[in-house]
From TrEMBL:
<keyword id="KW-0288">FMN</keyword>
<comment type="similarity">
    <text>In the N-terminal section; belongs to the HFCD (homo-oligomeric flavin containing Cys decarboxylase) superfamily.</text>
</comment>
<comment type="function">
    <text>Catalyzes two steps in the biosynthesis of coenzyme A. In the first step cysteine is conjugated to 4'-phosphopantothenate to form 4-phosphopantothenoylcysteine, in the latter compound is decarboxylated to form 4'-phosphopantotheine.</text>
</comment>
<comment type="function">
    <text>Catalyzes two sequential steps in the biosynthesis of coenzyme A. In the first step cysteine is conjugated to 4'-phosphopantothenate to form 4-phosphopantothenoylcysteine. In the second step the latter compound is decarboxylated to form 4'-phosphopantotheine.</text>
</comment>
<keyword id="KW-0460">Magnesium</keyword>
<keyword id="KW-0436">Ligase</keyword>
<feature type="binding site">
    <location>
        <position position="162"/>
    </location>
    <ligand>
        <name>CTP</name>
    </ligand>
</feature>
<feature type="binding site">
    <location>
        <position position="104"/>
    </location>
    <ligand>
        <name>CTP</name>
    </ligand>
</feature>
<feature type="binding site">
    <location>
        <position position="114"/>
    </location>
    <ligand>
        <name>CTP</name>
    </ligand>
</feature>
<feature type="region of interest" description="Phosphopantothenate--cysteine ligase">
    <location>
        <begin position="15"/>
        <end position="224"/>
    </location>
</feature>
<feature type="binding site">
    <location>
        <position position="148"/>
    </location>
    <ligand>
        <name>CTP</name>
    </ligand>
</feature>
<comment type="pathway">
    <text>Cofactor biosynthesis; coenzyme A biosynthesis; CoA from (R)-pantothenate: step 3/5.</text>
</comment>
<feature type="coiled-coil region">
    <location>
        <begin position="146"/>
        <end position="176"/>
    </location>
</feature>
<comment type="similarity">
    <text>In the C-terminal section; belongs to the PPC synthetase family.</text>
</comment>
<dbReference type="GO" id="GO:0004632">
    <property type="term" value="F:phosphopantothenate--cysteine ligase activity"/>
</dbReference>
<keyword id="KW-0479">Metal-binding</keyword>
<keyword id="KW-0210">Decarboxylase</keyword>
Amino acid sequence: ENDILDKLPLKGKKVLITAGPTYEAIDPVRFIGNHSSGKMGFEIAKVSANLGAEVILITGPTYEKVANSLINVIPVVSADAMYNAVHQHFKTVDVAILSAAVADYKPKEVTSQKIKKKEATLTLELEKTKDILASLGVIKTNQYLVGFALETNNELENAKDKLKRKNLNLIVLNSLNDAGAGFKSETNKVTFIDADETVTEFQLKSKAEVASDLLNKILEQINA
Ligand code: CTP
Ligand code: CA
């Protein structure tokens, strides 16, 4: 056998990716969510597969679709479900890229019946969700761990702090300040910060191009 596919740079590697938002139930018909489209994570999955990787794509609710025999899509809804799915697979992967916009808080109690409107105001008590990325930083052995940081102020400082605090190899800083960047848009403006605090700033690009830049950086680092 001398298959050209055997020569792809991520052949034989397993990459876990999280994507999209999470939905946190309030009652049987309502949830707390966010505007993440899932696009960034799906682009990362496609580039990884095109490089020959076996991909586990754990995604919250999204309109994105992908059909690729190398990409195993695992749909989840809540932060707890995403945590469980990630932990089911993390031990077996070489690279983990957590691009999901996981809810930071969830309703402390989920009522089994629909909440009826009564008083003029309604107060929901929220509790923190588990930080999936940080939990991987604690247990990681040889995995190359990548996080994202969505910041609106003190961007570099906050991103560096997340990189250290969560024990990451690389963090992708997403600048929400720039027009055309972020959640619903087709484009992103990112900065990479690696574990030795090397900072690489990029121009506004399509999310597909950002995904290529990211896999390029990861390949450079895992082959170094
Ligand atoms: N993340 C996660 N699990 C959570 C919250 C966040 O895995 N419960 C991951 C995201 O996927 C992302 C990174 O942590 O890769 C940073 O997310 P971000 O929202 O920027 O930072 P937080 O640590 O949640 O802090 P804050 O929102 O207060 O800035
Ligand atoms: Ca957050």
